[in-house]
Amino acid sequence: MAADRYYFEENARSPLAERGREEQMKVYLHYPMAIMAEAGIEAPQDVLVKVLGIVVEKFGKGTFVLFDDVLSTLERLKQQKLVLGLLTNARRDTISSLHQRLGLESHLDFVVTSEEVGADKPKPEIFRAALDKAGVKAAEAVHVGDQYELDVAGARGVGINPILIDRYEIYPEVSDCPRIQSLSELAKYL
Fold this sequence. Notes:
The chain is mainly alpha-helical. It folds into two domains: about 1-60, no CATH class; about 70-190, HAD superfamily/HAD-like (Rossmann fold, 3-Layer(aba) Sandwich). The protein is built from eight helices and five strands; from the N terminus they run H-H-H-H-E-H-E-H-H-E-H-E-E. The strands form two sheets. The chain has a three-stranded parallel beta sheet with strand order 3-4-5, with helices on one face. The chain has a two-stranded parallel ribbon with strand order 1-2. The two termini are about 30 Å apart. The mean pLDDT is about 90.
């Protein structure tokens, strides 16, 4: 969990895709180091490079799947006549094919990408673009996200009510907003 948190915080500080190769490698090498440290294993840098190489080789093209609670929750929310959108830092072409393949298309009213807005989360522009597409005021909106700095701080920065989905207890100390482990818990906050 420390590895994920480190990666999320680094990406929030400055998007990795915009950094130089050397700085990217520093962050990417820290990831397996943090995992091994949590397991009580110290490894020299050459071992970490090998581990990273194996991870990239085996999982570099990653396959996305939905959590079991996603479609059922989206269906319930649509039945309540709520406006649902996807707000992402992913590229438009990536998210377009992904949201079709995963069956999200019929459940979402809109998608906003950082690419089309010209600003990544947590910058206000991307959240304001989502508010415009939803046709609601910030105080009427809820943003559910899994990264504190990008999602909670970003949403709160424009007046949107944030909810942190923390499926793996990455942020156990967070108490300044609702923190859920499953989307099925959303109903009590809407």
